[in-house]
Amino acid sequence: MKNLTTMLACIAVLHVAGCDDGKKTDEDTTTVDTTVDTTVDTTVEDTTSDVPEDVPEDVPVDVPVDVPVDVVEEDGPVVCEDDATHHYITVSGTVNALPTGSLDGLYVAAISPMDALGNPTPTPLAEGNTDASGNFTLECINTFGVLLGLVILVDDAAEDGVAGTIFPTGTGVQAWTDPTTAVDEADATVMAVTNGLVTGLETLVPTIDADANGFVMGLVVDSGTGLPVDAATVTRADTTAAPVAYPNVTFTGLETDSDTSANGSFVFTEALGLSSFTAEATGLTFGDHQAATKAGFCYFMMLTSE
Known about the structure:
This protein is mostly beta strands. It is built from 4 helices and 16 strands. An 8-stranded mixed beta sheet has the order 5-4-7-8-16-10-13-12. A 3-stranded mixed beta sheet has the order 6-3-9. A 3-stranded antiparallel beta sheet has the order 11-14-15, with no helix packed on it. β1 (71-73) and β2 form a beta hairpin.
């Protein structure tokens, strides 16, 4: 997983556009998953002193009766214990609004790639809210059976679809081939696309209908410098042309030379089935990353050099 400092380095380049951040992503990509797990409550109140005297004998008296026995609170912090059907990780990091917006109290949820790209109502594996600086922590994310990776969904204070200030946005934060090898992530950076930016993009690119079809947006980033890549092009992985446009540095127009501006941003101009994409830039090599559109959802793709 790329370090948060990478995205902080992007701030200076994107400042003129009002962009708070851009994030390098894993060179692996998130793809469609086939299994969705249920949410595990991570904010358990310690009620051990109030356990009724008629608690069944097979329930330990030092564990609240309404708490799964594999999630136990010890001296405050939640401890998630792996077993044959649970592999828990914790993901913490920062949400960054594009181009600008309040970061306080945003809704964040860990979801599987299948839910991110194919389910109108994703089932959260864990959920929470940001603090005033956009920081968040999601504990007890059970990755068991969640294939290929993890997506962090961002919306307003509660999920409200395309209403409110934030357009539902999902960013991949980890990828894996074996979900039991997933590890804690302490510096994840995810994007929150504002409804104001969505309106602007629909004006610039009339073929985008975010409510009806959703859209894919992203950044091309140099892993060596942590900066967005100017003059990069985005293509399909088979090198055929991709339906892509490149916003200028202020997001008020489009570049006319068919490559990224200094902010490294791109947006696909039509609805997409699951497809693989890559980037090309002088002196840099990029892997393949998959993306698709879903109605009322922005999948934010990070193309980071290898």
